[in-house]
Amino acid sequence: MKRERTSFIYLYLISSVTYSAFALIGPFLGAYYRLNGLTGTQIGVLSCITCLFSLLVQPLWAARADCSGKAKTYVCIIALGAGISVMSYCFAHSFGGFVAAAAFYALFYTSVSPMIDTISMRECRIFGHQFSLVRLGGTISYAAIALIIGRFVQKRPTISFVMGAIAYFCLFGLLSRLPAGENHQPQPDRKGFRFIGRIAEIFTDRSVYFVLILAFIFQLGFGFLFSFLSVYVTDLGYGQSLIGTLQFISAGTEIPVLLIIYRVERKFGSLHLIAFAACLMGVRLLLCARGSIPMLILAMLLQGPSYMVLYYCSSMFIQSHVFKGKASEGQSILYLVQGGAASIISNLFGGMIVDALGFVRTFTIVGIAMLISSGAVAVVMTVTERKFSHDGH
């Protein structure tokens, strides 16, 4: 079956609209909870609902998409569901209402990014596009939207959910025009090495475990920062306009990284860059602990070299180390480890620690723990690589 060519502009537009939806909602959600009188622990619990769905529901969407071969159908359902479900936040005003809204939204939202990444990387590989430049559309849109919408959210907080729903509906319209080939993907026909259950049937190389461990460590810090940054800024006495500005700076630093990451990854290798990004995430948390605007800005300036490096390198590593017909499940495992397991820990226990010790001590403790753990994994990884290299000779 001859595939219809997918243009770079079309994939770029999908990425732009996807991250516009994320920028309209995510950066301001914690502050919205705070405005409704929720405690740090309650905010952590609400964030954990999303993480729990990443752990339990998102892999089911991915597995079903792979087993049926109908990636287009399932990604359209997910985008439409996200647009409908995010409106439920407008009707929630108590902790119980937010629990229901968070669960409804998480049912779809947690699968948006992994499914779209899988499709975009596949289309880029088939037609020779560079995925980092496609993803650049998402970064630019996120930065611009976060800066602009922050000024409006300050006066009308619920506008972010309405605009987010509109963005998801636009995304659904774009995804419905994906080529028919995305509904005729090959089904899985072989199993991988026997090592640890289901993971062994998806990946071709055991080095993926280093990627997953480092991604887990990274997300412990990043998940806490993402969920509580707006709360922290609010508690420091600043408005949501600063939140939007910080998000704009943060996303803006991803642009130069995306322009050069393809060449940098080829030179240094994915695994080394992933380890570097995890260590740098610990540094960002220590900077945030200082509590001043200059230090917060500096922490945001490290977004590109930390988050985007880890995101790109881990996604590309996994995409190139999965068996045929396992593309969605491969990306799903990464999101399960980050958005599921690690984020549950960072949000639930992070909220409890914040209530007990305050933000400054929590940022300090988590930052130091990240530096030590990621550094230890990097050492083990380097020793293992040298051992295999020596044995190979």
Can you describe what's shown?
- The protein has 393 residues and is mainly alpha-helical.
- α1 crosses α9, α3 packs antiparallel against α15 and α9 runs parallel beside α12.
Largest sheet: none
User: In terms of per-residue confidence, which ranges show pLDDT below 50 for 5 or more consecutive residues?
Assistant: 191-197
Mean pLDDT: 86
What fraction of residues sit in β-strands? under 5%
Summed up, the helix count is 16
Q: What pattern of helices and strands is seen along the backbone?
A: HHHHHHHHHHHHHHHH
Radius of gyration: 20 Å
User: Percentage of helical residues?
Assistant: over 70%
Distance between the termini: 44 Å
State the total count of DSSP E strands. 0
Class from helix and strand fractions: mainly alpha
Approximate shape: globular
Name the descriptors.
globular, 393 residues
Structure, briefly:
The protein is mostly helical and 393 residues long. It contains 16 helices and no strands.
How is the secondary structure organized here?
Blueprint: H1 8-35, H2 40-56, H3 58-68, H4 71-85, H5 95-127, H6 131-153, H7 159-175, H8 197-200, H9 208-235, H10 240-252, H11 254-268, H12 270-288, H13 293-301, H14 303-319, H15 327-357, H16 359-392
